[in-house]
């Protein structure tokens, strides 16, 4: 049985990271077109860098939770087929929990991309106008390695191939409002089963065979135990 797991902001919210679309979330506090679009970056790069620098710094204050660790365990112990974890999150909590069969489809806060040479690199500190690319040495050409609105998500060929061969699709903590991830459940082969793990029904809940309502830190470890039994 081949498993594909999709995670969204809800799984990291339980570690203390703010979500985007919930009441009081990040998009209710800032205008997404100003900090999460190529046009916003071109208009005011300093403001955009400050926004992501603050979010990158916050990662030092949080740790992976029980749901992150349960998914890392599922990957380690799954012997009945393939396993792939796809995350919409730009944090590194899955990485720190030990997940390796992992694709960050919206990029990573702890990486910087160079607009001069196109390479991306691990990056822990604030990005400033004086920051130099570790690859080509160009200064002032780094941007956060995150996918902004209007840009193509990463790793889509690998994700679509995994979905085409999927038997069990599990979506955890997703709002089902951001495409193309919201439509993954509709890309599954007919034989595949879908499970949604969310405190409340998402916009795509009717497309799943099963819905588990509750916190990810409670429901994901329980589901992993069932799958490994």
TrEMBL record:
Substrate binds at residues 52, 55. It comes from Sabulicella glaciei. The active site is at residue 106. The keyword Phosphoprotein does not apply. The keyword Hydrolase does not apply. NAD-dependent lysine deacetylase and desuccinylase that specifically removes acetyl and succinyl groups on target proteins. Modulates the activities of several proteins which are inactive in their acylated form. Zn(2+) binds at residues 114, 117, 133, 136. SUPFAM superfamilies: DHS-like NAD/FAD-binding domain (SSF52467). Keywords: Cytoplasm, Metal-binding, NAD, Transferase, Zinc. It comes from the Bacteria. This is NAD-dependent protein deacylase. Residues 1-229 form the Deacetylase sirtuin-type domain. Belongs to the sirtuin family. Class III subfamily. It is found in: Cytoplasm. Its cofactor is Zn(2+).
């Amino acid at each position: 049985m081949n498993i594909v797991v999709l995670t969204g902001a809800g799984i990291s919210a339980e570690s203390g990271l703010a979500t985007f679309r919930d009441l009081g979330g990040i998009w209710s506090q800032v205008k997404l077109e100003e900090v999460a679009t190529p046009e916003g970056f071109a208009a005011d790069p300093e403001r955009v860098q400050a926004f992501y620098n603050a979010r990158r710094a916050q990662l030092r204050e949080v740790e992976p939770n029980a749901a992150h660790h349960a998914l890392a365990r599922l990957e380690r112990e799954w012997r009945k087929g393939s396993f792939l974890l796809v995350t919409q999150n730009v944090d590194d909590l899955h990485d720190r929990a030990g997940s390796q069969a992992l694709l960050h489809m919206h990029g990573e806060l702890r990486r910087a991309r160079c607009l001069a040479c196109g390479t991306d690199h691990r990056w822990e500190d604030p990005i400033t106008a004086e920051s130099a690319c570790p690859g080509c040495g160009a200064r002032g050409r780094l941007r956060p390695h995150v996918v902004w609105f209007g840009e193509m998500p990463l790793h889509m060929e690998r994700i679509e191939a995994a979905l085409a061969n999927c038997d069990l699709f599990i979506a955890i903590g997703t709002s089902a409002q951001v495409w193309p991830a919201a439509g993954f459940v509709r890309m599954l082969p007919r034989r595949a089963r879908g499970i949604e793990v969310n405190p409340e029904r998402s916009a795509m809940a009717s497309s799943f065979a099963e819905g588990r309502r509750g916190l990810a830190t409670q429901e994901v470890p329980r589901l992993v135990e069932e799958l490994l039994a």
